[in-house]
Amino acid sequence: MLTQLSLCSFVSSPELSQKLKAVLGENEYHLYSFDSAIEFGRCVVEKQQEIDCLLCQVDRTLLPVINRLHEQGILLPMVIFPNSTTSDYSVYSPKTELLHQATYLFHPAEVCADDYLASEILPEITKAIAQFVDFASHLHPSEISAKHIFSGDSKIKNFLMPHELSEKLKARLGYLGVYYKRNSQQFWRNLSDQERQKLLSQLQQEYRHIVLQYFTEDEKLNQDIDNLVNRAFFADISVPQIVEIHMDLMDEFSNQLKLEGRSEEVLLDYRLTLIDVIAHLCEMYRRSIPREM
Fold first, then answer.
1. Is 229 helix (H, G, I), strand (E, B) or coil?
2. pLDDT band at 272; cut points 50, 70, 90
3. Dihedral in degrees, nearest 10, Cα atoms 170, 174, 176, 181
């Protein structure tokens, strides 16, 4: 049986808070919700052994709380939403002691989400926990200070090292793939015709963007691929469906190239895009298979 995930949120925006409560309530997550950073911090400290992921909205009152969590050696998966008045995650100066020349707020495995994606928070939580487990599993204790993961306080080494935190998280969840918990009502086969068309349009649009940016130096490309794969995974989209989306797009491009009198051979290169996306999706499905601890 899957273990219920416990989440703790600090969100100053009433609208975003309501969205999160609605979505997470429908999916039977246990949520501790706060609009006060201080109360949020107290809850994290008191229930650190129970909480599986943090959901935080960027706010200046959050910074002292994050500092205190670092000082106490508390490290958990985190999803970050932008400030209610700006979509800029860099509300904190990169010169602060906490960030210490890094580009993250809490740790390198945190996930930055958009507030308008609150209805799709489940894939973000999935990604945050997955990245944390992967990050913690591959990090050697000697790398902590060198990678500027913490503020330099040696107390962190007297708590639980990231690898131990990862193992504890896996044990609490039951098995490694449990954080890929899905709602079968959101599966493609259970959607209405209208919902299927909407989902298909989203996948087609996202895949088109990935194809057009694949051979550029777009820094968001990996994030875009992850978003597409997460959406496909939670809808139980099959590999043949992804292939069909790819082939339809290539047919469209082929017709355009013919009209322009250009060679279609360039389209062969985009097989790499298809392979990349399928590999990511297959890995998601592989990790979702329960296995004995």
1. helix
2. very high
3. -120
Nearest Cα to 79, choosing from 117, 48, 43, 39?
Answer: 117
Q: With CA atoms as reference, report the closest residue to 242 among 293, 280, 190, 289.
A: 280
Q: Given the DSSP bridges, would you call strands 53-57 and 30-34 parallel, antiparallel or unpaired?
A: unpaired
For the chain, helix (H) and strand (E) counts, in that order, are 9, 5
Q: Where are the domains of the chain?
A: 6-179, 188-287
- Supply the pLDDT for residue 1: 34
234's CB contacts (< 8 A; 6+ apart) are 122, 123, 126, 182, 183, 186
Backbone conformation region of residue 31, classed left if phi is above 0, alpha if psi is from -120 to 50, else beta: beta
Q: Which tokens hold the place of 21?
A: 């409560």
Q: In CATH, which superfamily holds the domain spanning 6-179?
A: Response regulator (3.40.50.2300)
pLDDT reading at 57 higher than 70: yes
Selected residue with higher pLDDT from 55 and 157? 55
Amino acid (1-letter code) at residue 218: D
pLDDT score, position 127: 79
Q: Which residues touch 220 (CB under 8 Å, ≥6 apart)?
A: none
**Which pLDDT tens digit goes with each residue over 92-145?**
333 333 333 345 677 777 888 876 566 678 778 877 877 777 666 555 444 443
Strand ranges of the sheet holding 30-34, from the earlier edge strand across to the other edge: 30-34, 6-10, 53-57, 78-81, 111-112
What b/e readout covers 86-110, taking b as 16+ CB neighbours within 10 angstroms?
A: eeeeeebeeeeebbeeeebbbbebb
HSE-up of residue 246 (Cα within 13 Å, Cβ side): 21
| CA torsion through residues 178, 183, 188, 190, sign | positive
The CATH topology of domain 188-287 is: 1.10.1240
